[in-house]
C-alpha cells in the first residue's frame, strides 16, 4: 500500500447493509454509508435535526464540554437560513481577487521557508501555520494573531488520542470572549465587529450568538484544512506525474481540488438527531437516537463514482459530498477551495519533488471501522525546482 | 457562437455571447447574480441552477441522471431545471433564455 493512500474502510458494510453502528459515550450512532441516503437525509431536516442540544450532533459528542450553540451549524430551517444570510457574504470574500492575492503571497512565503529548511514536519510546521495564517484573512484580523492560534496545537477541542479535552476548549472560548469584548469596545473591520453589528430578525446578534459563529469558524476550519493540506503533499510525493501534470495543465487545478476533497474527505461524518421513529436502509431508528451522515463513505460509493479509490486529477463529473450537502453545506468551502487551489499551483511552480521520510498515521476509531484521515506527523523533504 | 440570455431573481436581463466552455463559466465570468459555480463545474454544488424557458428545452435537452438526482433534493427544482455547468456552449444553444433559480 502506498503511504499516501487513504483506504475505504466502509466498502463492505456500505454494499451489504448500507449502515454501520458506533457507540459513542453511550449515545450510539447509526452511520449512513450510501451516497443516496446521505444526501437525502442531509436534506431531510424535519426527521434528522441539527437543532439538538449543543454538541450532540458532533461525533464524538461534545455535550459534556460545551453549552454554546454553534451557528448556523446547530440550527434548522427556516431560522438557519436567516443566520446563514448574515454570514454568507462574508464567507464568499475568498472569491475576490485581492483576497486571493494575499493568500497567494502567504502560501508562497511558507513554501519558500520550507524549501530553505529542506525537511519539514508537514502537520505541525507547514499545514498548521498555513491554516492559521490564512484564517487571519478570513477573519480580517492582524496577521500576528496566527501565532496564538498556532500555539494551541492541532486540536482545538481534542487533545491527542481520543479524550475530549475540556481545557483546550476553554482556551478557545476564553480567547473568543476576549476578542468579542475587544470588538465591542473598539469596533473594527474584523469578523467579530461585523457580526456584532449584524441585524437578525430586527435586532442585533447577541454576544452568545457571535460566540457561536466564531467557535464554529475556528473549529470547523482547523483539522479539516490541516488534513487536506497534509494529504495533498503526501499524495504529490508519491505521484510525481501528478505534480508534473499540474505544472503543465494548471487549468485542471479546480477539478483536482474537488477530487482531493472527495478522496480525502477531511470531515468523516456529521451527526443528526432523529425526531420521529423511522427507518434507514430497512433498519429501524428510534426517536431521539442519533444517525450520522458519512461523507467519507458516500464519496467512495461505486454506484456514483467510477474507480472510487483512485484520485482522477481531472474527474469531470464529481458529485462528492466532502463539503456536505443541502442547506448546511460548508460555509468555509470558498476559503478552503481557494487555499487548496493556490497551494497546488504554487507547489507545482516551486517544488520539483517531495520525499516522505518517517510518519505516523492518524486513524479515527469508529468502532466498527478504523479510518485513516491523515497523519499525526509526517516528515517530508521538499526539493526545489530549478528554473 | 451563441447568444444566451439570463434573467436574474432581481429581474435583470443579461444577454451574453459565448463560443466555448460551459454556460456556468460564461455567467460567472460576467458576474451574473445567483450563479456562483462554487465547485467549478463538476456537479457537486448546485450553485449554477437555472430554469430553461420551456420552448428552449429542445435546444438544451433535459437534465442528466446525475443532475436530476441532485435537483430532486432542491426545493426550487422543476422539469425545466438544469445545472448550467453541464450545458456546453455551441451554436445549438443560440437564443436560449435561462432564469436563474437563486
Ligand atoms: C477542506 C476543508 C473543509 C471540509 C472538508 C469541510 C467540511 C464540512 C462539512 C462536510 C460540513 C457540513 C456539516 C453538516 O452538514 O452538518 C461543513 C459545514 C461547515 N463548515 Fe466546513 N469544511 C472545511 C473547511 C471549513 C473552513 C475553512 C471553515 C471556516 C473557517 C468551515 C466552516 C464551516 C461552517 C461554518 C459550517 C456550517 C455551515 C452550516 O451549518 O450552515 N469549514 N464543513
Ligand atoms: S457549478 Fe457546481 S454543480 Fe454546477
Automatic annotation (TrEMBL), chain A:
Which SUPFAM superfamilies does the record associate with it?
A: Cytochrome P450
Q: Which GO terms describe its molecular function?
A: heme binding; iron ion binding; monooxygenase activity; oxidoreductase activity, acting on paired donors, with incorporation or reduction of molecular oxygen
Chain positions covered by the region annotation Disordered: 1-26
Where is the sequence biased in composition, kind Basic and acidic residues? 1-14
**What InterPro entries does this protein's entry cite?**
Cyt_P450, Cyt_P450_B, Cyt_P450_sf
Which family, according to the similarity comment? Answer: Belongs to the cytochrome P450 family.
> What protein is this chain from?
Cytochrome P450
Q: Which organism is it from?
A: Kriegella aquimaris
State the taxonomy lineage: Bacteria, Pseudomonadati, Bacteroidota, Flavobacteriia, Flavobacteriales
UniProtKB/TrEMBL annotation, chain B:
Please provide the record's keywords in A-Z order: 2Fe-2S, Iron, Iron-sulfur, Metal-binding
Q: Which cofactor does it need?
A: [2Fe-2S] cluster
| A GO term, aspect molecular function | metal ion binding
Entry's Pfam families?
Answer: Fer2
The reply on keyword Hydrolase is: no
User: Known SUPFAM superfamilies for this protein?
Assistant: 2Fe-2S ferredoxin-like
Tell me which domain of life the UniProt entry assigns to the organism this sequence originates from.
Bacteria
Asked if the keyword Metal-binding belongs to this entry, the reply reads yes
Q: Where is the 2Fe-2S ferredoxin-type domain?
A: 2-102
What's an example Gene Ontology biological process for this entry?
P450-containing electron transport chain
- Name the family: Belongs to the adrenodoxin/putidaredoxin family.
Supply the name of the protein. Ferredoxin, 2Fe-2S
This chain's source organism reads: Kriegella aquimaris
Lineage runs: Bacteria, Pseudomonadati, Bacteroidota, Flavobacteriia, Flavobacteriales
Amino acid at each position: 500500500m502506498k503511504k499516501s493512500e487513504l483506504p475505504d474502510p466502509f466498502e463492505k458494510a456500505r454494499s451489504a447493509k448500507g449502515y454501520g453502528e458506533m457507540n459513542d459515550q453511550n449515545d450510539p450512532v447509526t452511520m449512513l454509508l450510501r451516497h443516496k441516503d446521505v444526501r437525502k437525509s442531509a436534506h431531510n431536516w424535519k426527521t434528522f435535526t441539527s437543532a439538538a442540544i449543543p454538541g450532540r450532533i458532533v461525533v464524538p459528542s461534545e455535550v459534556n464540554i460545551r453549552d454554546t450553540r454553534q451557528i448556523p451549524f446547530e440550527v434548522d430551517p427556516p431560522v438557519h437560513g436567516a443566520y446563514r444570510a448574515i454570514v454568507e457574504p462574508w464567507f464568499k470574500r475568498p472569491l475576490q481577487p485581492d483576497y486571493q492575492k494575499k493568500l497567494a503571497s502567504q502560501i508562497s512565503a511558507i513554501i519558500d521557508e520550507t524549501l530553505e529548511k529542506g525537511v519539514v514536519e508537514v502537520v505541525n510546521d507547514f499545514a498548521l501555520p498555513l491554516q492559521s495564517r490564512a484564517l487571519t484573512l478570513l477573519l480580517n484580523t492582524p496577521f500576528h494573531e496566527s501565532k496564538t492560534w498556532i500555539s494551541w496545537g492541532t486540536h482545538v477541542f481534542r487533545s491527542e488520542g481520543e479524550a475530549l479535552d475540556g481545557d483546550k476548549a476553554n482556551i478557545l472560548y476564553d480567547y473568543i470572549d476576549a476578542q468579542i469584548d475587544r470588538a465591542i469596545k473598539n469596533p473594527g473591520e474584523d469578523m467579530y465587529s461585523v457580526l456584532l453589528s449584524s441585524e437578525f430578525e430586527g435586532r442585533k446578534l447577541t454576544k452568545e450568538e457571535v460566540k457561536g459563529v466564531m467557535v464554529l469558524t475556528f473549529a470547523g476550519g482547523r483539522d479539516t484544512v490541516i488534513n487536506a493540506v497534509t494529504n495533498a503533499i503526501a499524495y504529490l510525493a508519491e505521484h510525481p506525474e501528478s505534480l508534473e501534470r499540474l505544472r503543465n495543465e494548471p487549468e485542471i487545478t479546480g477539478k483536482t481540488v474537488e477530487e482531493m476533497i472527495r478522496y480525502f474527505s477531511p470531515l468523516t461524518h456529521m451527526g443528526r438527531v432523529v425526531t420521529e421513529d423511522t427507518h434507514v436502509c430497512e433498519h429501524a431508528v428510534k426517536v431521539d437516537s442519533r444517525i450520522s451522515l458519512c461523507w467519507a463513505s458516500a464519496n467512495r460509493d461505486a454506484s456514483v463514482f467510477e474507480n472510487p479509490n483512485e484520485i482522477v486529477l481531472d474527474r469531470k463529473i464529481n458529485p462528492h459530498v466532502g463539503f456536505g450537502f443541502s442547506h448546511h453545506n460548508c460555509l468555509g468551502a470558498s476559503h478552503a477551495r481557494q487555499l487548496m487551489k493556490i497551494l497546488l499551483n504554487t507547489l507545482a511552480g516551486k517544488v520539483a519533488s517531495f520525499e516522505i521520510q518517517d510518519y505516523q498515521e492518524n486513524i479515527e476509531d469508529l468502532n466498527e471501522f478504523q479510518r485513516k484521515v491523515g497523519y499525526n506527523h509526517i516528515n517530508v523533504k521538499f526539493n526545489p525546482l530549478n528554473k | 457562437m451563441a447568444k444566451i440570455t439570463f434573467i436574474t431573481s432581481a429581474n435583470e436581463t443579461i444577454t451574453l455571447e459565448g463560443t466555448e466552455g460551459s454556460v456556468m463559466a460564461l455567467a460567472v465570468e460576467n458576474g451574473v447574480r445567483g450563479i456562483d459555480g462554487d465547485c467549478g463545474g463538476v456537479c457537486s454544488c448546485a450553485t449554477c441552477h437555472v430554469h430553461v424557458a420551456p420552448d428552449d428545452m429542445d435546444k438544451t435537452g433535459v437534465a442528466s441522471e446525475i443532475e436530476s438526482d441532485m435537483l430532486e433534493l432542491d426545493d426550487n427544482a422543476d422539469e425545466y431545471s438544469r445545472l448550467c455547468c453541464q450545458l456546453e456552449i455551441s451554436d445549438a444553444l443560440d437564443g436560449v433564455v435561462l432564469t436563474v433559480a437563486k
